[in-house]
């Protein structure tokens, strides 16, 4: 926390709070999809629930950004009122650790599309292992569970990784990120 | 009212502890009784708009019900498929039904506990208590408070952007590609505005001498008194009592890899 500038912390918190609302808004969407397709319905859009860790890490590029933003988002979700309750904070911590692990593996040096998609997939994998034990996936048939895992990882790569990068790049173009790592990188690219 | 005055950190840790214990219990009766107990405590010692509570609770009931039928339909092959029960003229293995009921009741028990917290806790006091009791770094905590404050402002901003679009002749999107474009037209300015405001807030905080140092004074000091411990003691002894009863009557079941 010492190396973080206050500006970065406040921006990360704002992003987390905003996406906490987005996350809550997507819960009924998941519920409808789960009603149509069974539990796998959630996995189709599961990537949306990792998006803030990818966006925060991509913009700020400091160790801990992915983990902290996801944890704050989950906590705010609980404080705004949520069916899953405080357990959701633990899910958030685990998803954040998953995304963080991808950035840690690349030693916080690379923030290209592949790494961001990997982060989405790692968040999906971590959250799936957690869900396996807490949501009773083991009660489902194993081929179905495997299909759920593949769907969730694809969703993590596409919705969290790809859409997250696209949103952040679009934000950087407006110039508001000029004093953050992403904005600086884009300026360097333009200058070159 | 008592619940509103319990130290928020003590309250939060109690709820987390209760959820943790409940997560390992796999009989349907204990969570069911505990749900009623939590409701009783919430309504006797909290004051809030009952209508909102009921709306929230009903939506969670719906969620738990969805969980119930989906875990019956997509259940694994039971160990003892011969034992069947009929509900509404529909044959279901008894084992699957029991598992599904206890899973959904667990979800509902978690929901009532978190509603108890949400409906009786002030968010700002909770964060202040996290700094003062649980040693959350002030830099992070005040950052979160600032972010939380932006939510109502963003709602206003959303309306401004919509009016601005209307004024320039952009109507509500009808087709799917148009909706996607509309999403972009709203999401980017909203987020950009929020980031700009966050940056300005951070500069303002620093210019007024905020360093994020732990060694600081507080306008609203939050403390723990003896009275605060009544809540965890009552909640945990009730859970302990229910577990003891379940052991005595032999329906106790601990998590042992059932599902």
Structure, explained:
The complex is a heterodimer of chains A (192) and B (259). In chain A, 77% of the residues lie in helices and 0% in strands. Chain A is mostly helical. Chain A has one domain. With 259 residues, chain B is mainly α. Chain B has helices at residues 2-5, 8-23, 29-45, 50-73, 94-120, 123-132, 138-167, 176-207, 230-249; strands at residues 84-87, 90-93. The two termini of chain B are 41 Å apart. The mean pLDDT of chain B is 86. The chains are: A mainly alpha (192), B mainly alpha (259). At the A-B interface, helix 1, helix 4 and helix 7 of A face helix 2, helix 4, helix 5, helix 7 and helix 8 of B.
Task: Kindly list the characteristics that best describe this protein.
heterodimer, A: 192 residues, mainly alpha, 0% strand, globular, B: 259 residues, 2 domains, two-stranded antiparallel sheet, 9 helices, 2 strands, flat
Secondary-structure-derived class of chain B = mainly alpha
According to DSSP, the number of beta strands of chain B is 2
- In terms of quaternary structure, the protein is heterodimer
Q: Give the proportion of residues in helices of chain B.
A: 55-70%
How many domains make up the coordinates of chain A? Answer: 1
What is the tally of helical segments of chain A? 8
- Unreliable residue runs of chain B: none
The total number of structural domains of chain B is 2
Overall pLDDT score of chain B: 86
C-alpha-based Rg of chain B, rounded: 24 Å
How large a portion of the residues of chain B is in β-strands, by DSSP E?
under 5%
Fraction in helix of chain A: over 70%
């Amino acid at each position: 926390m010492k190396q973080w500038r206050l500006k970065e912390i406040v921006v990360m918190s704002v992003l987390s709070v905003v996406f906490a609302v987005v996350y809550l808004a997507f819960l009924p969407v998941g519920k409808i999809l789960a009603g149509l397709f069974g539990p796998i319905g959630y996995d189709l859009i599961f990537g949306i629930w990792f998006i803030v860790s990818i966006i925060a890490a991509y913009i700020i590029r400091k160790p801990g950004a992915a983990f902290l933003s996801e944890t704050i988002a989950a906590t705010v979700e609980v404080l705004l009122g949520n069916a899953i309750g405080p357990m959701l904070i633990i899910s958030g911590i685990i998803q954040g650790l998953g995304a963080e692990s991808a950035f840690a593996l690349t030693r916080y040096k690379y923030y290209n599309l592949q790494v961001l998609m990997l982060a989405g997939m790692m968040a999906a994998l971590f959250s799936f292992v957690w869900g396996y034990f807490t949501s009773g996936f083991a009660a489902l048939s194993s081929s179905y569970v495997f299909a759920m895992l593949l769907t969730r990882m694809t969703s993590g790569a596409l919705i969290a990784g790809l859409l997250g990068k696209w949103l952040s790049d679009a934000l950087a173009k407006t110039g508001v990120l000029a004093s953050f790592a992403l904005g600086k990188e884009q300026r360097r690219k333009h200058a070159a | 009212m008592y619940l509103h005055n319990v130290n928020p950190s003590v309250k939060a840790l109690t709820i987390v502890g209760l959820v943790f214990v409940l997560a390992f219990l796999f009989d349907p009766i204990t969570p069911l009784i505990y749900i009623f107990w939590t409701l009783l405590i919430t309504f006797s010692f909290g004051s809030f708009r009952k209508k909102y509570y009921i709306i929230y609770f009903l939506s969670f009931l719906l969620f738990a019900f969805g969980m119930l039928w989906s875990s019956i339909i997509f259940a694994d092959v039971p160990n003892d498929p011969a034992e069947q029960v009929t509900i509404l003229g529909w044959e279901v293995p008894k084992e699957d039904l029991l598992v599904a009921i206890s899973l959904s009741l667990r979800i509902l028990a978690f929901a009532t506990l978190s509603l108890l917290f949400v409906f009786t806790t002030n968010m700002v006091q909770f964060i202040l208590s996290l700094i003062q009791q649980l040693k959350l770094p002030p830099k992070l905590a005040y950052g979160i408070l600032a972010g939380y404050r932006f939510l109502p402002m963003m709602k206003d901003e959303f309306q401004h952007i919509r009016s601005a679009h209307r004024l320039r002749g952009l109507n509500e999107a009808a087709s799917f590609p148009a909706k996607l474009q509309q999403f972009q037209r709203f999401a980017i300015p909203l987020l950009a505005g929020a980031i700009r405001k966050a940056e300005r807030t951070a500069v303002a905080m620093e210019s007024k001498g905020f360093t994020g140092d732990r060694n600081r004074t507080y306008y609203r000091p939050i403390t723990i008194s003896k009275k605060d411990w009544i809540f965890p003691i009552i909640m945990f002894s009730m859970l302990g009592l229910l577990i003891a009863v379940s052991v005595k009557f032999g329906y106790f079941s601990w998590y042992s890899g059932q599902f």
